Amino acid sequence: MNSCREFFDASPDRVSVRGFLHRPSAPARDCLILTHGAGANCSSPLLVSVADAFCDAGWIVLRCDLPFRQSRPHGPPPRGSAERDQQGLQAAVASMRQHASGHIFLGGHSYGGRQASMLAAAESGLVDRLLLLSYPLHPPQHPAELRTAHFPRLQAPVLFVHGVRDGFGSIDEMTEALKLIPAPVHLLPVAGAGHELLTKQNRSELPKAIVDGFLDF
After folding, report:
1. Most buried of 56, 133, 200, 202, CB within 10 angstroms?
2. What pLDDT does 13 receive?
């Protein structure tokens, strides 16, 4: 039977890592690290369902709270928190290398996915692949304020999962923006979904579709 337990790593030489570690019943080598959006935490329904689906597929999964959420239970990340949040993801990667002997994959929803991609762009080779759920391409109703400056430096392959009704970027806008990334990329549109991705209609099949899309990619 798969297991899920609270996880905490407070190594003195790096930012603390806090979250939940999912382990499949059979021995596993590969690990996926997932983190949350700006208004959520690692126990959001989307992250839990996706983590469970990857664990069912035989992966170790860590869903973790970013440093801003560890120190601030509610509300958005304060200004200037991005660097420390990326350090938190870097610490999560280092911690998971003690638990998984295979590939390390990194991803997250919205703000968390953006921080994961910025870290991967800054540190080529840190992780093997990225899973970005609802990447916040631009603020709603501000399409000119693109968050793509780091895209040309991304060397890890990336799967983007994006709702067709997402106000942070349309499918057409995403398709155009992904041309900036030199690494292999794939965009998986989710019909009927907005920025939260998970809906009453798709909650039973979406997590498996994300796993299948990631494995196929």
Report:
1. 133
2. 85
Give the DSSP letter string of 174-192.
HHHHGGG--S-EEEEEETT
Q: Which residues of the chain have pLDDT under 70?
A: none
Domains in the chain, number: 1
Burial of 145 (0-12, 13-18, 19+ CB in 10 A): exposed
Written as one string, the DSSP assignment of 61-102 is EEEEE-HHHHH-SSSPPPTT-HHHHHHHHHHHHHHHTTT-SS
| Nearest alpha carbon to residue 44 among 164, 200, 209, 198 | 198
Q: What percentage of residues in the chain have a pLDDT greater than 70?
A: 100
3-state secondary structure of 43: coil
pLDDT of residue 12: 84
pLDDT at 22: 98
Contact 38, 125 (CB under 8 A): no
Are 180 and 146 within 8 A, CB to CB?
no
Helix (H, G, I), strand (E, B) or coil at 119: helix
* Contact by Cβ (8 Å): 113, 139: no
Distance of alpha carbon 13 from alpha carbon 106, whole angstroms? 21
Residue 1's pLDDT is what?
81
Reference 9, options 92, 81, 74, 77; nearest CA is: 92
The single-letter code of the amino acid at 113 is: G
CATH number assigned to the domain comprising residue 201: 3.40.50.1820
Asked whether the whole model's pTM tops 0.85, one would answer yes
